[in-house]
Give the backbone structure.
Amino acid sequence: MIALGLPLPLPDDDRGGDARYDLYLVEDALPPFTVPDGIATGGAWDRASAFTVLPPPDPAAGCELDAAVTRALAHAAVLRLDAGAEPSAIAMVGSELASTIVDCGLLDAAAVDDFQRAPERSLTTFADPDEPTGAFLFTRFLDENYGTGIPSGVLFGLLAVAGQRTDPSALHFANEPDVFDALRSNARAREKPFEDLLLDFAVDRAFVGSRSDGAHLVDVDRFGDFGRVRFEWSVTYDTLPRRLAPVRPIQPTGATYLWLDLQGAPEDAEITFAADWELGVFFHWALVKIDRTGAEVGRVAIAGINGATHADRSIRDLRGLAGLLVVGVNAGSIDRSHPFDPDEGPELPRAYTVTLYK
């Protein structure tokens, strides 16, 4: 942690023998878990030291123990910055650090596979802070686009910004503001709407594993077919027009993917895209042009309009393309006074229909 320039866990005032972070090896302690030493509320910022309980080293476990210790250390370090941090943010930080520091490819691939198989789920659904999560891809996206080369550096910064003071009479830490509040504020300062950031990540997520084109997230081709995000539909040009709908509704911050194969399309082909969705949320869309090498060669972004439940666009200049990738993201409530909150669960899942025609 020191070598990476990241914070260490908060000293625990000699609990457990001395002030250092403590690991307790206990038989049958499965899964490993990290907990704060105590409820430290009051006039100061909400911070807490922590300790971790895990089973004794098992030679057969290989890299899994190293990864578990890395996640636990990251968990304890987060509690130093924000003792009320949401579990999903802790999970993302720990999994990204474990993926960077520990060579445990199969463990990472399994977590990424789980994440990519259910793109319609909220980023905060994968929220056990002591278990690996493929949602660390979002952490990596933030680092690559807004960071300074430190793994999880952006998310650690957001956690520091989101620190708070909980009323001394409260029974638990009040996680307001949360990481997503800090991210929205930071995005506005950069003149990059939060919804656009979610859509950019959703597009990058389509180029993970064996679909990697080397121009989006780095070091993700190693996940192979485990990294391939699930497409709702794959249809061919000669079957148009088609009206398509997802198997399950899309949760806020979740994404959806449709593939249109352009084999056999005339050089002057024109595709019209029309989307309709249920009330209450914004949907943002991207139409991504993919060439025959699998690389992105352009995109058209379509932002949702407050109160609208329809978007459409015609797209031309399809010459030489292998296909058109349609990416949608549920950007959350249209009520600006009630933005997405990770502590309230994945509210407002919404379905849609997309029509593609010549």
